[in-house]
Description:
Blueprint: H1 2-21, H2 30-33, E1 50-59, E2 66-74, E3 77-84, H3 91-99, H4 106-111, E4 120-122, E5 131-134, E6 137-140, H5 145-167, H6 171-182, H7 194-208, H8 217-224, H9 226-238, H10 246-253, H11 261-278
Parallel strand pairs: 3-4, 4-6
Antiparallel strand pairs: 1-2, 2-3, 5-6
Bound molecules: zinc ion (ZN).
Amino acid sequence: MTKHAFLLAAFCTSLAHGEAEAKPPQRQMLYSIFAPIMQDMGSCNLQKASVVSGPVEMKMTNNKQPGKQWWIRLGQSKFKVTIEDSANLKLETALANAERIPIAYRRALEVVSEDKKAGLAFYKTLGGAAAHGGQAYLNMIPLKGDRAASVIAHEAGHVLEQRARSAEKDILDRWAEAVKADNIDVSRYGNKANPEDQAEFARLYAYCIDSAVGKGMKGELKKLSPERFELWEHMLRESKALPISDSDAELKKRAVLSEKMKPKLAQVRATIKELATKG
Ligand SMILES: [Zn+2]
């Protein structure tokens, strides 16, 4: 959060000085604009995960170390959770992480649970990384609940993009075109590579559709980055993450916006309005 707050402050300063020094205008960044709501993902989600079967003792895919695996149900989704023994992570904690992600993103957990894949897999360490995600795996280290959900949302972006790309080979080329057309950055990390821009957008979209923190933000995101928004929702449909089932949607509607989020939502709206008037 500190980092995001700083980025926003730096951005506003550069706007203020921009005209006087006649520097080229700095590109806007979505993570700076939405920083106030990029926290507490899924804190008001109501659905609880339950164990279908397990644990089964097994060896972790990456390092062959001992671990345990369960089949889990969460709403209409069924997926695996695998935990390396040495990660010292309780199953309930792992499930609480999964409960925080948006309903549509549970599809990513289903994709990485197909066949012999290990599902949402927790390792003690991943060589310095927090997580890795693709169609074949979603590996992560134990993290605090809201951070874990945010990381899963990013990796789900990779998983669902790859699933959509299996059907539409040029989808990342189209993403690069969308980035150009939108003329706004997602995040510094996203600027490193086109697929990271896409996964970072997936993370931001997750916040913007969140039951607790995202009220009304989906529309704001669509206005600020319309081409990415449309292509990401297309990928969600292509990968069968959307539409979500009626029964899951019904429960989502009952989630209540927490009072402490209201000023933060207002703050994001004020920033967007200010940017619009500055043109
Ligand atoms: Zn990534």
